[in-house]
Amino acid sequence: MSKLGKIRVLALGLIRDGGRIFVSQGYDSLKNETYYRALGGGVDFGETSQAALEREFQEEIQADLTNIHYLGCIESVFTFNGQPGHEIIQLYECDFVDTKFYNLESLTFSESKNHQHKALWLDISLFKSGKLKLVPETFFAYL
């Protein structure tokens, strides 16, 4: 096994509303760069990726999902805050059960005590034009 780290398996949800998608905002302090990605999180041992997706949305923003459809698998090798990372992403398209989420401008949620994140609706055109960075870049194939 490599000393650098482990491959993380994630389940992420692509939620659309017209020409916009619901994403989480992140920041890489070494690159001085803001980026965005779909919400979701790690798959635990013995858990299906769809179960992980539903659990993560419930834990992070207390949201239930519906119309969950598997889109595909994305492999992402990257550097974040100077550290190498490697993720296998199981990507799902889904919708919120509660329509209140479609009316939100943004919301702040905690992944852990020290990690607060902002989730918000952004126009897909902002990513396609290059004004905003969507990660991983291979995500564009699903838009």
Number of strands: 8
Q: Kindly state the mean pLDDT as a whole number?
A: 93
Largest sheet: 8 strands, mixed
Query: What share of residues is helical?
Result: 10-25%
Distance between the ends: 35 Å
* Oligomer classification: single chain
Low-confidence stretches: none
**Per the principal axes of the C-alpha atoms, what is the gross shape?**
globular
Q: Which class do the helix and strand fractions yield?
A: mainly beta
Count, helices? 2
Helices and strands, in order, run as: EEEEHEEEEH
Strand fraction equals over 45%
Radius of gyration (CA) equals 15 Å
Task: Present the secondary structure layout.
Elements lengths: L7 E7 L1 E2 L2 E9 L4 E10 L6 H13 L3 E16 L2 E14 L9 E7 L2 E9 H5 L15
Parallel strand pairs: 1-6
Antiparallel strand pairs: 1-4, 2-3, 3-4, 3-8, 5-6, 7-8
Short descriptors:
mainly beta, 143 residues, eight-stranded mixed sheet, 8 strands
Write up what this structure looks like.
The termini are far apart. Helix content is about 15%, strand content about 50%. The protein is mainly beta and about 140 residues long. Strands 1, 2, 3, 4, 5, 6, 7 and 8 form an 8-stranded mixed β-sheet that branches. The longest helix has 13 residues, at about 50-60. Strand 5 and strand 6 form a beta hairpin. The chain is built from 2 helices and 8 strands, in the order ββββαββββα.
